Structures are given as structure tokens and as C-alpha cells.
UniProtKB/TrEMBL annotation:
<comment type="subunit">
    <text>AMPK is a heterotrimer of an alpha catalytic subunit (PRKAA1 or PRKAA2), a beta (PRKAB1 or PRKAB2) and a gamma non-catalytic subunits (PRKAG1, PRKAG2 or PRKAG3). Interacts with FNIP1 and FNIP2.</text>
</comment>
<dbReference type="GO" id="GO:0005634">
    <property type="term" value="C:nucleus"/>
</dbReference>
<dbReference type="InterPro" id="IPR000644">
    <property type="entry name" value="CBS_dom"/>
</dbReference>
<protein>
    <submittedName>
        <fullName>Aakg-3</fullName>
    </submittedName>
</protein>
<dbReference type="InterPro" id="IPR050511">
    <property type="entry name" value="AMPK_gamma/SDS23_families"/>
</dbReference>
<dbReference type="GO" id="GO:0045722">
    <property type="term" value="P:positive regulation of gluconeogenesis"/>
</dbReference>
<comment type="similarity">
    <text>Belongs to the 5'-AMP-activated protein kinase gamma subunit family.</text>
</comment>
<dbReference type="GO" id="GO:0019887">
    <property type="term" value="F:protein kinase regulator activity"/>
</dbReference>
<dbReference type="GO" id="GO:0019901">
    <property type="term" value="F:protein kinase binding"/>
</dbReference>
<dbReference type="GO" id="GO:0031588">
    <property type="term" value="C:nucleotide-activated protein kinase complex"/>
</dbReference>
<dbReference type="InterPro" id="IPR046342">
    <property type="entry name" value="CBS_dom_sf"/>
</dbReference>
<dbReference type="GO" id="GO:0005737">
    <property type="term" value="C:cytoplasm"/>
</dbReference>
<keyword id="KW-0129">CBS domain</keyword>
<dbReference type="GO" id="GO:0043609">
    <property type="term" value="P:regulation of carbon utilization"/>
</dbReference>
<dbReference type="GO" id="GO:0006110">
    <property type="term" value="P:regulation of glycolytic process"/>
</dbReference>
<keyword id="KW-0677">Repeat</keyword>
<dbReference type="Pfam" id="PF00571">
    <property type="entry name" value="CBS"/>
</dbReference>
Length: 337
């Protein structure tokens, strides 16, 4: 959370990291004021630009009538909390979001209400994905049933890959034999009944299974963003190093939401005023799209082959985009159609 330096003396403690705007004469400088113990273990703690100082803050009072205190130094001492804070000036506005991530741990980005779904790897794929859908979740963690350690992540992409492999396998059998599969044949070839462990081993044998990665809750958000980008993954479980439990899963969406929460009181980098195309963000050539008449199986096949998470839906007559089909939307259509 953020607040102004002028009201720092009346803040209710430093439970979350703060960015403070302080005015020195005619020059306005922006600096982060961070509780020392809240600094990430791999952030800017050892940077020469970090200055530590002691501050006194009024003790937070609970609800109810105020308790009268004797007018003495001892009473005043009881109403004050002392904190050691770090002051980090922001000299380059282009780096403000970078510093924001470096000075905040992954814990700071955790939502107030969080839901975690964990499957053992001996559960079959069909049941696992129905559980995700009925719990309005897009991702679940997979627990090794033999060691009870987290081993992988199960997402909508896995289920789409299973559906495509099943569809193509049955199509190949039908084209070779020239006969439609019987109900018993369909049950025998239904790979959605295989355990999650077998599916992950199949991906590993095909070279499509990425190593399972996690990050400590005390690590900086900058480390999380760097890991997501360098490993080209979309989900990163955040672990408690003390008990080994997963606290939540950090995503690109969660990181962007964290910036949005705090952007109002931070300097605006110049690149925010530039056009998206000039920054080279997004796809501006060879754009993939589908039509209203495109079969669902072809749309799913496009997502998997092009390694994209969604495609625009355009009209035949004028090519105007009228909708957007994401992995999750298509998966809901498959399950409930």
C-alpha cells in the first residue's frame, strides 16, 4: 500500500511496504519507505542507495471507547511503536516498477481470499478437470502420491492437449479401418481415464514437460517476474520455506494487478505514454484468427499448434473482430456441450 510522507507520522504501522512522496523545497522526490524486516531476502537490501533509519509510529488502537492514559512519559511510550525502515530514492522514473518489484516480496501480491486445489497424481485426468471447472479454478497442483511432495501443475492446456491427442488418435484409426469406433472401442482408447502421473510421464517422453519450478514467499516479485519470463511459464507456485506448503500461485495477471494497485501514487514512466505498437508489444503480423463457422476442434488445434492462449473471432463479411476465444472459454464449451 502507499501513502504520503506528510501522513507518515499518523500511519498505523508498516505492515505492508510503502511508497512515500516527500517534498524537499521546490524539488519533489519520490522514495520508497520500506519496513526493514519486510524487505525481500533477494531484493535491494545490500544496495548502496538504501538508507536505514528508525521512526516512531502511533500504536494501532482497537475498536471501542478510548482508554484514558496518565499524562506521563511512560504512557506516551506505550502508545508508540518503533520501526527500522529503509529509504530508497527513485532517481529514474523508467525503473519505478522494477524497484517496486525488487522491494516487495511475493507475499505482498497474495490475494486476501485465495483458493488452492491439489490433486494426487493417481487421480484420473477427467475427474481432475471436472474438479477444476466446478471450483471455478484454472490451475491445480499435483501431489506425488508416493512422496507427498508437489510434482507439477495441471492446467486447462493439459486438458486441451489430452482432447486433441484423443481426437487425432481416433481419427487415425477410423481413416485406417474405414469403420466407426464402437462404444467399447471408445472406452478402451479414452486416455482421459489415465492417471495424471501417466499423462505427465507421456509429456516427459515427448519432450513437452517443462521442469516444475517454485519460488519462496520471501523472494522478491522481481525474481518471480524474471522466472516467469525466462522460463516461459504462466504459473509459479509460491512456497512457504518454513513448512513447505504452497501459499498461492503467482501469474502475470497477479503481477499486473499489483502494479495497478500501486500505480496511482508512483511516477509515471514515459513509456506509458507511447503507443503499444511502438513498444513492440503484441503481435502485429501473421495474426491468427477464427471465423464463426470454424469448427471447435480446429480452434483448439490452432491454440496448441501455435502455442497461444486465445484467438480473435472475426466476421466473414468485413473481417471485424466480434469476440475472443480463450483456452478457458473453449474448454468450458467442450465440457458442457
Amino acid at each position: 500500500m502507499f501513502l504520503l510522507a506528510q501522513v507518515m507520522a499518523t500511519a498505523n504501522g508498516l505492515r505492508r511496504n510503502k511508497a512515500i512522496l516527500s517534498e524537499l523545497g521546490d524539488e519533489a522526490t519520490t522514495q520508497f519507505i520500506v519496513s526493514k524486516r519486510a524487505l525481500p531476502k533477494n531484493g535491494l537490501k545490500d544496495s548502496p542507495n538504501v538508507h536505514f533509519c528508525d521512526v516512531s509510529l502511533p500504536r494501532e488502537t482497537g475498536p471501542g471507547p478510548a482508554i484514558e492514559q496518565a499524562d506521563s512519559e511512560e504512557a506516551e511510550e506505550k502508545n508508540v511503536i518503533y520501526r527500522t525502515v529503509a529509504s530508497i530514492p527513485i532517481e529514474d522514473s523508467e525503473m519505478v516498477y522494477c524497484h517496486l518489484f525488487q522491494l516487495n516480496s511475493c507475499y505482498q501480491a497474495m490475494a486476501k481470499n485465495n483458493k488452492m486445489i491439489v490433486f494426487t497424481d493417481d487421480m484420473n485426468i477427467r475427474k481432475a478437470f471436472y474438479a477444476l471447472i466446478y471450483n471455478s479454478a484454472r490451475t491445480g497442483l499435483v501431489l506425488d502420491s508416493r512422496t507427498y511432495c508437489l510434482s507439477s501443475v495441471l492446467s486447462a492446456t493439459d486438458f486441451i492437449m489430452v482432447l486433441m491427442k484423443l481426437w487425432k488418435f481416433r481419427e487415425a484409426i477410423t481413416s485406417i479401418t474405414g469403420l466407426q469406433l464402437t462404444e467399447e472401442d471408445e472406452k478402451r482408447t479414452d486416455i482421459t481415464e489415465m492417471p495424471i502421473r501417466s499423462w505427465k510421464e507421456h509429456l516427459h517422453n515427448d519432450g513437452k514437460l517443462k521442469p516444475f519450478q517454485t519460488i519462496d514467499v520471501e523472494d522478491s516479485l522481481y525474481s518471480a517476474a524474471e522466472r516467469l519470463s525466462s522460463s516461459r511459464i504462466h504459473r509459479l507456485p509460491v512456497m512457504d520455506p518454513h513448512c513447505g506448503d504452497c501459499m498461492f500461485i503467482i501469474t502475470h495477471r497477479r503481477l499486473l494487478h499489483f502494479i495497478w494497485q500501486h500505480a496511482a501514487l508512483l511516477p509515471k514512466p514515459e513509456f506509458l505514454r507511447e503507443r503499444v505498437r511502438d513498444l513492440g508489444v503484441g503481435t502485429w503480423s501473421n495474426i491468427k484468427y477464427i471465423l464463426h463457422e470454424t469448427p471447435l476442434i480446429d480452434a483448439l488445434d490452432m491454440l496448441m499448434n501455435e502455442k497461444i492462449s486465445g484467438v480473435p473471432v472475426v466476421r466473414d463479411e468485413d473481417g471485424l473482430e466480434v469476440s475472443f476465444a480463450s483456452e478457458h472459454n473453449l474448454l468450458i464449451t467442450v465440457i458442457f456441450s
